[in-house]
Amino acid sequence: MNKKRTIISLFIISFLIAFHPALAEKISLKLSYNTSSISGSDLNTWLESLNSVWNDWQKAKGGQVEGHFELFSYGPKYEVELRIPIAWGVALNLSGTYFSKGKDGNISYQSDTGKQSESRFIRNEISAIPLKIGLSYSYPVPIIENLYVFANVGRHIIFVQYKTTEDWEAFFKSFGEEFHYWYKKDNTFRSEALGFYASLGVEYDLIKYIAVVVEA
Q: Is the entire prediction scored with pTM above 0.70?
């Protein structure tokens, strides 16, 4: 928790420093389209486990399983970065983005004997705010004007909120008796994740304020 507070505090302080009159003219703002905003989360691990449980149950007990719970993919997202120059090509970078996504999934099971049937519907919604704070170094390529090679390194913190709606219904028959169960529930979870990031890239200035950047 102390590390999270430290990163958030540094992010806020750095952002306020950026508005200092002496730095305002040197600061640059970059809008990028990242191919991957964050990696897979615990939510995908949970959904993978649910899919595996039903498949394992079918292998052990027979019957028919239909449907599955779809996994989340965190695709390309726009990201805004504030670059504050320090000295000798070194700069302080602050960046962030936001995204949200929803997925529905349904699994139904029917035993061969007709004594058991279950259906489970889950709607998942996720929203996240990844923030980054780090340093970058930019080096001008001597033989090509306006071309720079740069490297980034730093830490990121991701604020995530999950919302789930779950609807389950089951029917069992045992010793001539029939049993019917069902429930519906909504849950909200929040989490934060800390990590490191590093990247290399090239930047070519086309005209003032516009550049082409390739980064990996």
A: no
